[in-house]
Fold this sequence. Notes:
- The protein has 10 helices and 15 strands.
- It is of the alpha/beta class.
- The strands form 4 sheets. Strands 2-10-9-6-5-3-4 form a 7-stranded mixed β-sheet, with helices on both faces.
- α1 runs antiparallel to α7 (230-261) and α2 packs parallel to α7.
- The protein is globular, with a radius of gyration of 21 Å.
- It binds ligand T4K.
Amino acid sequence: MNSPVYVTKPFLPPLEEFNEYLQKIWDTRWLTNNGPFHEELEKRLCEYLGVNYLSLFSNGTLALVTALQALRITGEVITTPFSFVATTHALWWNNIKPVFVDIDPRNFNLDPGKIEAAITPKTTAILPVHVYGNPCDVEKIGEIAGTYGLKVIYDACHTFGVTIGGLPVINFGDLSVMSFHATKVFNTFEGGAIICHDAATKKRIDNLKNFGFAGETTVVAPGINAKMNEVQAAMGLLQLKYVDRAIGQRKEIAHRYRELFSGVEGISVLDDFPGIRHCYSYFPVLIDPSKSKKNRNEIYEELKRHNIFGRRYFYPLISQFPTYRGIESAQPGRMPVAEKITEEVICLPIFPGLPMETVNEIASIIQSCIR
Ligand code: T4K
């Protein structure tokens, strides 16, 4: 490959269109703190995503930290080790103990069958992740939460416009948190959001992201500065115009990879799940070392030699990082599925504009490593 091919490449709208928005920002001198583009984007995203209440954030991590504060989560929270480290960091920033539970081999999400055994009197919530945009078993998780009186906050940072039987996945649970980082399906350079179910909760979240201010002279909580600015919001408004097309292109790429890998022993892919509208944010494949000439790490290196930069999302597991490995639930051998998947997974390049010839080439390099 002449120029590097990364796991993703942010979609950007035509610069002329963005300039029109910038001109308005220059004219009004309204740069942040609930500016007109911020207000419009909240409204437009609610419409697009099919939700009633959404608060924009400067990034997904601060949205996660704030979501936990908004519900006053304390003690222990059950979560997955198979995610980006920000999921667990958000607990740490709130002085909450993460309790890691294994994942389901079918979708790599928190395994609901293993949650109950991890509940203690200190457990207050469950923080699952819809990894790669594939929905968790929201019904079962909801049932467990109901039985034990736990809150559910979904890390929905990989989902955009994903639906289950026509219902937005981000409407399940008490809160859902999204990321609009540059590497995501829908990006505002950096950005994020919390989705909630009622106006009072939105108000609390909006206060928390603005230092805890509830009006000009009252501070009701030790909030943080996590506001989305007008340049980010303008980018979001423009991205909305193109996002369906972008998801369509991702879908074509995912389908092509699947075709190319179908029937190849040693490599497995996740298929589309029935009844789900996917957003194809990542394209993970698993390399079975017992059936492949080269293992995942060797394939990762081989791709790099061809100037192709897949990523081992999520390796190592969060529970294996030095900062978290001392926790009881993180001990080796306790999460056999996650420990296996993290050694076998590699996410391949997928983004709008990735040429199909490149997809073919990536698949053929991998196939030559397997047989
Ligand atoms: N929860 C979950 C489940 C998440 O996945 C994330 C973020 C969060 C929470 C937190 O949300 P944020 O606070 O980030 O909004 C990236 C992203 O930085 C991170 O947002 C994302 N998850 C994570 C899965 O991936 P890195 O360290 O892999 O990023 P980086 O800089 O290596 O970028 C990956 C590739 O993308 C590069 O090799 C090239 C390409 N790229 C990247 C950027 C930033 C571009 O072409 N242009 C760019 O501007 O973490």
